[in-house]
Amino acid sequence: MGGRWIIQQNTQRLTRVLATFVGVSVPAALVNSGLKYMQKRIKLSFQRRLTHVLHEHYTNHRAYYAASTLGGLTHADQRITEDVEKFAHTVSELYSYTFKPLLDVVLFTRALSRVMGYQRQAALYGYYLVISQVLRATSPPLALMTAQETALGGAFRAAHQRLVANAEEVAVSWRGRCTEQMILNQHLYRLLHHSRLSAFQQFVQQSLDGFFPPHPLVSPRPSRPARPPHPRHPTSPPPPQDYISAMRLLGSTSRAIGDLVLVYKRVTGLAGHTSRVSELLERIRGLASADEDSTVTRLYLRWAGRDSSAGVLEPLPEPQRLEGDTVKFRRVYLSSPDGNLLVRELSFEVVPGRSVLIMGPNGCGKSSLFRVAAGLWPLQAGEVTLPPKGELFYLSQRPYLVSGTLRDQLLYPEPPQAVWDTASGRSRARVEPWMKSLQLGEEELEERLCECLEAVELDYLLIRGRGWNQVQPWNETLSGGEKQRLAMARLLFHRPRYAILDECTSAVSADGEQKLYSECVRAGITMLSIGHRPALREHHSVIVEFDGSGNFEQRTLRSSDKEGLLAAGQQ
């Protein structure tokens, strides 16, 4: 319309057309931006709800341990982060790529009906119906291709993460670089091979899409406009502007229908992401089932490859986990993952004030006892009695340092302060009953924390950094001994009745180790310790020695732990 007024040099009409165009463009721009905004909101809503459900199951009944350590789920980190994000993004795109073309078809069809009626548009719709069936029949398995490509990408990323996690061990091996390069290249070549195959299949599919024109009834603008009979006045030709308007509407309708036909590609891509996410949900729900012991046992035996009780002639006692006032093992059998029997008929009790030290050669089952007691490995035979969870603390050889401040390191497993400040009321209500820091005032809490740091000789961390609120990459900043000392400070702060310690001071010097165990005895913590150094006997009342052939010997050293401090002159 504006071109005619330019040719006629009608400034008034041209200004009116431009004003109308500007008036329509502003709401059109807002609508388009609003559609993109709503698409983003839909994606975030899907991602938030789905990830929240996954987190609820993933952190329940130690499903994360069964997934990562026992092999219950491969690449769980990638599936929960990337796969869920891709699924939510594809779902949100499907809304805009479906409803907008569908609305365009309805509006343009109604507008075209005034010019050419509904019967002549039926040929267009029939053409696309046939073409859609042909394209679906010749389409490659896009859902399977998407799922496989995502899995290969996750394996490639996991190979790099494994190299980063073991960088020091690989670096000290002179020929390790070549081996690791071959491993990474193998994952890369697998991904590239699949990508090339996928690209070829997409090339074939795009060729078919191009062979069947997406807008068959839209022809180039003719130099001489044709004059088809007007539906309202069959004997008189329509005006040229009606013909041009009809061609534009017809082109818009064809494009909208073509977009709807090609939606099948996005649906099949969504099917690939859906299969990954649905498998993730199913596997995590299985790992987080209420029967935690049966889940751990099933995965452990699958990992072991055969029944661990093989070779034992006498009938084994039924496995039982009980709750009581002491730590007690009665007729417990320990086996390694490859099925070898480590200890048979293990029986002893840890009573308050009388700590027990487990000693023996490497591979005799000391750490296996720790994992069975913690519920990480299944109890295959015998009876294990443990106090309530709030009265028992576990420390392994590799301490876990949470992301957060120095204060957060000592308060863990309480949530870090930054997480606590943004937590919902429901989340707070779940952890408030057992948070000891909430039971102390601010000054009393800081005084207690300082005492714990001084007891493990780490008070210099407050001076070296910026007080309790300093945030550092603790795993890189602290040495192995400092990490273990910090974990012992955490133990001293919480002061449980019992603590099970699996070589938790192996990186600390002998003198430092003596001081740490002395502080535990002074704090009234009864320990079930696993260690190698003979000097640890001074801080324990009973010693249980494994001989590595399935037998053990139990000896009493003294009547109470404090007698050892008195004998060493440390009371």
TrEMBL record:
Pfam families, alphabetized: ABC_membrane_2 (PF06472), ABC_tran (PF00005)
The entry's keywords: ATP-binding, Membrane, Nucleotide-binding, Transmembrane, Transmembrane helix, Transport
Start-end of Pro residues biased regions: 214-226
KW Metal-binding (keyword) present: no
SMART domains, A to Z: AAA (SM00382)
Domain of life, per lineage: Eukaryota
GO terms for MF: ABC-type transporter activity; ATP binding; ATP hydrolysis activity; long-chain fatty acid transmembrane transporter activity
Database matches in SUPFAM superfamilies: P-loop containing nucleoside triphosphate hydrolases
CDD domains: ABCD_peroxisomal_ALDP
GO cellular component: peroxisomal membrane
Residue span(s) of domain ABC transporter: 327-568
Coiled coil: none
GO biological process: fatty acid beta-oxidation; long-chain fatty acid import into peroxisome; peroxisome organization; very long-chain fatty acid catabolic process
Annotated stretches, region: Disordered: 214-242
Family from the record: Belongs to the ABC transporter superfamily. ABCD family. Peroxisomal fatty acyl CoA transporter (TC 3.A.1.203) subfamily.
Name under which the protein is recorded: ABC transporter domain-containing protein
Organism expressing this protein natively: Chlorella variabilis
Lineage, uppermost ranks: Eukaryota, Viridiplantae, Chlorophyta, core chlorophytes, Trebouxiophyceae
